[in-house]
Amino acid sequence: MKAWLLRVADKLRQSYWFIPTLMACAAVLLAGGMIQLDSYEGSSWMDRFAWLYASRPSGARQVLSAIGGSMITVAGTVFSVTIAAVVYASGQYGPRLLSNFMRDRGNQVTLGTFIATFLYCLIVLRTIRSPEETGGTAFVPNLALLVAVLLAICSIAVLIFFIHHVPSKIHINSVIEDIGSRLLKEVGHRFPRCVGKPADVEPDPDDPALPLALRRDACRAEGAQPGLVSADDTGYIQLIRDDDLLALASKHDLVVRLRYQPGDFVHAGRALIEAWPPERCDDDACEALAGIFAIGSQRTALQDLRFLIDELVEIAARALSPGVNDPFTALTCLDWLGAAISDLSSRDIPSHLRKDEEGALRVVAHPQTFADYLERSFGALAQYCAGDMIAARGFLKTLGEIAIECDDAGRLGALAIHIDRLQELAQDSLEGFNRKAVTQRARQLRRALAEPDYKRRLRDEAAWLDGTT
Fold first, then answer.
1. What keywords tag this UniProt record (predicted)?
2. Is the pLDDT of residue 9 over 90?
């Protein structure tokens, strides 16, 4: 249930109807409250101010009609401009970036402001009565009319903000910054900082705490068929409630293994979880375990760090395509990817084995390594960067900056693999001076990483840190 609620909350954040609906409801309540207040206070208090006077019914109707009519017209224009900007961004940067623009709070509030002002004026306008209509008693909610004018002034200010906001949000650097900032935030949230030397977190394959089927010496006959928890829907796994998973495994005294992770595609009936011992995985346990998954029609960044990396990779790959040929946009993506991987290089990646408070093994998740994230980002971009000298040298420069933040020999080895891979691809893709320049830079970086004082060598080599390409 919690997973479903979190998925719904994320969908509401990237909808164009939720916040405008809330603002429209607030406008209706505000209009009712102001009319009620006007019916008790009247407009005699305005006579005390020389610059403020009570309006007559005809004048009040004209003011409210002008404000309401202009607001609904501007709301239609704002909606058209917003949709045009979303379509442009989707076609220019990739369809997966559509959700980033849909969840933009500035567009949602702008649309809601104009709709709310229109509804407020419409409701207040309905209550104005002239003496001819009531047989001698007129009613003009002057306080509510004053609030309508203030709302119109606020709407003009929001319109000015919107005119600036739309072009700034669809600027490619702003798009990349939004994704990169969220990626850095997620890395900091999910992975703790390294303290001292990293501990050996790999499990013993012969550990008796592991289910028999997961041990190194288990044969097919000994590995009993586990209890299976199947998916109820078809789509992408958007969220897994890991705390609830651990609690349910402890409650039913199970050891569970996740067959998928957030971002993976599953279809109804496919097993999501394997559980041991199978006799304890009854119908109630299966139903509860299936409820910790939220499955939807698209990938989201709720728990899928790879999705944010893929978005930056997609923008860079499109920028380096022959039809666009924009290596400097690719360099911006490499800078943000490098910042995230540099941050990750100094952090502990938790073990994929999860234990409960008593120290009993309960959950076997998908193992995640620094090399996996490096492959997902720079490994995916190597084939595109190798065909452009500017992007290739920026690729190597970013790997050098990551190496300066890295202390682990295994992670440095992963960086060296991608240096060699780019050099090999560049040999086939580039010619003449371009190939020579990239090859020379790759060899220079590899020589520096092979030295014990590689950090000093990279810092002293101005070409890595001065931003030149």
1. Membrane, Transmembrane, Transmembrane helix
2. no
